[in-house]
Write a structure and sequence with these properties.
With 148 residues, this protein is mainly alpha-helical. 62% of the residues lie in helices and 4% in strands. It is built from three helices and two strands. This is 19976_t:CDS:1.
């Protein structure tokens, strides 16, 4: 009976040691998970801010295109109704102010419309790109820098 009691005490000590190891491992895993959750929340916040900024830029560009397109109306000779100039016509139209040094400060509406149209066509043709997992910010409209 003494041998049996000492054997049970030994097994109990082993189980207690194993329990301490498991509690330590559990604590470490919980800390790691808390850290990952904080990183993911920060990344989500950054992504939400980037998306909001991109949405505002898209809305501004679309509003500017609409504003520019409203001023460019032509008569269609085949039909007696007004219609907007097609984007292909805008792309091929000559820039009236581009080569005039006297009007250096004036912007060519045709050139602006051409650039905005190209930008919107590019944006509409793209698939939505996933946000990088590292949460780094991204430039939503790299093309805009080319014609600013």
């Amino acid at each position: 009976m003494n041998a049996e009691i000492s054997e049970l005490r030994r097994k109990f000590a082993e189980l207690e040691a194993k329990n301490v190891e498991l509690v330590d491992e559990n604590t470490k895993l919980r800390q790691e998970l808390r850290s990952r959750i904080k990183e993911l929340e920060k990344s989500r916040t950054d992504t939400d801010a980037d998306n909001a900024r991109c949405d505002v830029e898209i809305a501004e560009i679309k509003a500017e295109v609409v504003k520019l397109a409203e001023g460019v109306v032509v008569r269609d000779n085949n039909e007696e109704n007004e219609e907007l100039i097609s984007f292909e016509e805008v792309d091929n139209a000559p820039c009236s102010f581009a080569d005039q040094p006297n009007n250096a400060e004036q912007k060519c509406l045709t050139c602006e419309l051409r650039a905005l149209t190209s930008s919107i066509n590019i944006l509409e043709s793209r698939e939505i790109e996933p946000v990088p997992a590292d949460g780094e910010g991204r430039d939503c409209f790299p093309m805009l820098k080319l014609w600013k």
